[in-house]
Automatic annotation (TrEMBL):
SMART domains: CorC_HlyC. The chain crosses the membrane at residues 12-35, 47-68, 88-105, 125-148, 154-172, 184-207, 213-231. Gene3D superfamilies: 3.30.465.10, CBS-domain (3.10.580.10). This is Transporter-associated domain-containing protein. Keywords: CBS domain, Cell membrane, Membrane, Repeat, Transmembrane, Transmembrane helix.
Length: 529
């Protein structure tokens, strides 16, 4: 052990340890890829056995250095080229790496190799161990020959190999986990193994490939992959900062075909999603219903209620004949019962009970009225659903912050927010398709429903108080428009023109909407005389 007092021996030991680790990285990477084919509970065992066999094989080869050196002497001549035992081992090892690397790439790149059921078939434990032994033999030859050429003392070589393999065993588990969690890293590692296999094959045929070139290419590829992983990590962090509900809704809507529109540098809106035809899987009604469900939590009662000026109610100050006529003309089962004005609510009456009382006694029996459910206009729809369930209510009065009645809402209104409009017998649909790409819309039409029909976003603004088309247009015009006034909304390559057709006093009653599609490549279009 006189080498322990020799500083050059210690320097050689340190250098050899580093070099052995570098030479063993490719072996370790391939072991990580191979053990991924085993059941999770057997992977650690296979990895440790594989590296332990590599250690034993390298120590065994070091003890027979005299035989190892003879591997460089020619064994036979073929086509004028001498092949040594080392050359044969390198050629066989290179072919094995090329074969396994190509096979692994094929399995990961071809989706047809995946099982349709989603279940995964694991390889046999000893089959993987056998492949690891073959790899160890190939990589150990190269590592041991390098060790023999660097230092003179056998003990120094063995210590360096033991330290290097020990470090690799400790680092193998996190490296294996990292490789298996990042598919792009696996593809990169398989590319490295193909490069190494080709270099072994070339050296076996006598074409020396400088290791510096190989490691430079690998280092550059690793650097690019590091940048790629950093970019992916930053993207995931940015996504994690978004609300889970928003991300889930966006993912589902992408599946259903409602693609987000992004803006490019010129301010033109472009579609960044992959081309798809969701209509082959989901119908328009299905997509609209799922979209309605996902947006319920973002909407308040004001967006689905019947506004005050359209509310049907019973005034107890009217004559019995007038009340009876009102009940006969209204299709609703429940109506607010008030005294003098809608703000003076007494209760909620069932139409058939009030009609029976009027026929028998000539008046509405106030004692049979139900207590009114009163909610604020800012309450969410999901919270309103819970209130309807708790109170078993059929109608709720919506008030503003001053207690004035703003409108009424029923469970049917919630259902319409999901499935679309269900007009009463005395009502016309709010949205009527006049012809292809043209619609005639009531000013009181719900903006969420209108977005679904038109296939656009941007009409609804949660920061604004309006929830109808009339409110949207009043916000756009800034004042009460006159018939024939119009404004436009651009969505992708489509332009929607809103033209006011009819006013009802100070209310926008009817609006015509026309859709026109712009040519995405105007420079390619030609005009003919």
């Amino acid at each position: 052990m006189e080498w322990m007092s020799d500083p050059t021996a210690w320097a050689g030991l340190l250098t050899l340890v580093i070099l052995e680790i570098v030479l063993g990285i490719d072996n370790l990477i391939f072991i990580a890829i191979l053990v991924d084919k085993l059941p999770p509970q057997k992977r650690d065992k296979a990895r440790i056995i594989g590296l332990s066999l590599a250690l034993l094989m390298r120590l065994g080869l070091l003890t027979i250095m005299s035989w190892l050196i003879t591997l460089t002497t020619p064994w036979f001549n073929l086509f004028g080229h001498d092949f040594s035992g080392r050359d044969v081992i390198l050629i066989v090892g290179g072919l094995f790496l090329l074969f396994k690397g190509t096979l692994e790439l094929h399995e990961r790149l071809d989706p047809r190799t995946q099982h349709a059921s989603g279940s995964r078939m694991y390889a046999s434990f000893w089959v993987i161990i056998t492949q690891i032994v073959i790899l160890d033999a190939v990589f150990s030859i190269d590592a041991v020959i390098t060790a023999v050429g660097m230092v003179e003392h056998l003990s120094v070589m063995m210590i360096a190999v033991i330290i290097a393999i020990g470090i690799m065993i400790v680092a193998s588990k996190p490296l294996t986990q990292f490789v298996n969690q990042h598919p792009t890293v696996v593809i990169l590692c398989l590319g490295f193994l193909l490069m190494i296999g080709f270099s072994l094959l070339a050296e076996g045929y006598g074409f020396h490939v400088p290791k510096g070139y190989l490691y430079a290419a690998i280092s550059f590829s690793v650097l690019i992959e590091v940048f790629n992983q950093i970019a992916r990590r930053n993207q995931r962090k940015a996504e994690d900062r978004r609300p889970m509900r928003e991300r889930t809704a966006e993912t589902v809507l992408r599946m259903l075909g409602k693609r987000p529109i992004m803006a490019n540098e010129n301010g033109t809106e472009i579609d960044e999603s992959m081309p798809q035809d969701p209509s082959l899987v989901f119908g328009d009604e299905e997509r609209n219903m799922v979209s309605g469900v996902l947006t319920l939590s973002e909407r308040n009662v004001r967006s689905i209620m019947t506004p005050r000026n359209s509310v049907a109610w019973i005034d107890l100050t009217d004559t019995p004949e007038a009340i009876l006529a009102e009940l006969e003309s209204e299709p609703h089962s429940y109506l607010p019962v008030c005294r003098g004005s809608l703000d003076e609510v007494i209760g909620l009456g069932q139409a058939k009970e009030m009609m029976a009382g009027l026929i028998t006694t000539g008046q509405v029996d106030v004692k049979k009225l139900r207590e009114s459910l009163i909610v604020h206009e800012s309450i969410g729809i999901l919270q309103l659903m819970d209130l309807f369930k708790e109170t078993r209510g059929q109608l709720a009065l919506v008030t503003d912050e001053f207690g004035a009645i703003e409108g009424v809402v029923t469970p049917i209104d919630i259902f319409e927010a999901i499935a679309g409009e269900f007009p009463d017998e005395d009502e016309l649909p709010d949205i009527v398709a006049a012809s292809e790409n043209q619609w005639l819309v009531d000013g009181a039409a719900d903006l969420h429903h209108l977005e679904q029909v038109l296939g656009v976003d941007g009409l609804v603004d949660e920061d604004e108080e309006y929830s109808t088309l009339a409110g949207y247009l009043l916000e756009r015009f800034g004042t009460l428009p006159q018939p024939a006034d119009h404004c436009s909304l651009k969505w992708g390559h489509d332009v929607f023109t809103f033209t006011v057709k009819e006013l009802d006093g100070r209310r926008i009653a009817r609006v015509a909407i026309r859709k026109e599609t712009e040519d995405p490549h105007p420079e390619l279009s030609t005009e003919h005389a």
